[in-house]
Write a structure and sequence with these properties.
The chain is built from two helices and 15 strands. The protein has helices at about 170-190, 195-210; strands spanning about 10-15, 30, 45, 50-55, 65, 80-85, 85-90, 100-105, 105-110, 115-120, 125-130, 140-145, 150-155, 160-165, 215-220. The strands form four sheets. A four-stranded antiparallel beta sheet has the order 2-1-4-3, with no helix packed on it. The protein has a four-stranded antiparallel beta sheet with strand order 5-6-7-8, with no helix packed on it. The relative contact order is 0.14. Mean pLDDT is about 80; it is low at about 1-10 and about 15-35.
């Protein structure tokens, strides 16, 4: 099918190897479940097992890095894009100052290879937008399927690509809801049962794969929107 078009509390932290420049050292991002303590997690600490320095980048609950296969860093490695319930943000990895780029919930976020443009959809609508990070100008460039998921941009920034489920096939959120219900029932049935976000997502993904749902790949010409 050919498509042409004119889809618990979390703290965001960065891990850096102690004693190295944070730009030269490898960075990893993690999600931590809500602490049993009422106080906020510390701004930074040293991991006892690895000796790595851990720096908390966000004060807002629900903040998270982009999905692991998506580029979140500017070309010079000095800034990173992350999302939160309030919108999309850019954090300076030298000063750790945060700038809000887009307000409101967004989906299908893709950063250009040169780190100058941010492509996104606003939650619940089909319009595809591009933000010029330097000028802060936002431009609507195309209409995507409501359930279309933008996944990548090519190296010379002429084409975007993504996927969309055919027809009325259930999306991943439907399988996630099934997995959550099963986990809830398991917890009620057994006092020793334990559940986690990782386990729930694993079960949901397996259900999604077992369903063998047809999916299409689409491309968007950035210049024309087609």
């Amino acid at each position: 099918m050919k498509i042409s078009y004119s889809a618990s509390r979390i703290a965001l932290v960065a891990f850096a190897i102690t004693g190295l420049s944070h730009l030269a050292s490898p960075l990893m991002f993690a999600q931590t479940e809500k602490s049993t303590s009422e106080s906020a997690p510390p701004k930074q600490w040293t991991d006892a097992d690895t000796g790595h320095k851990v720096i908390r980048l966000s004060d807002e609950p629900g903040s998270k890095g982009l999905y692991f296969n998506l580029n979140a860093f500017t070309a010079d490695g000095k800034a990173m894009i992350y999302s939160s319930p309030k919108g999309l943000h850019r954090v300076d990895l030298i000063t750790f100052e945060t700038t809000t780029l887009i307000e409101g919930k967004t989906t299908a976020v893709v950063l250009s290879p040169n780190g100058q443009h941010l492509y996104f959809k606003k939650f619940g609508d089909s319009h595809l937008y591009v933000l010029d990070i330097e000028s802060k100008q936002i431009k609507r460039i195309a209409d995507l399927p409501i359930r279309g998921v933008l996944t990548t941009v090519n190296a010379n920034e002429t084409l975007l690509a993504g996927t969309v489920l055919e027809g009325d096939a259930p999306d991943f959120n439907s399988f996630k809801l099934q997995a959550l219900r099963e986990a809830h029932d398991e917890l009620l049935a057994s006092k020793t049962a334990r559940n986690s976000e990782l386990k729930t997502n694993t079960v949901a993904m397996q259900k999604r794969l077992d369903a063998h749902l047809p999916e299409d790949i689409f491309t968007v010409n950035i210049a024309t929107g087609k």
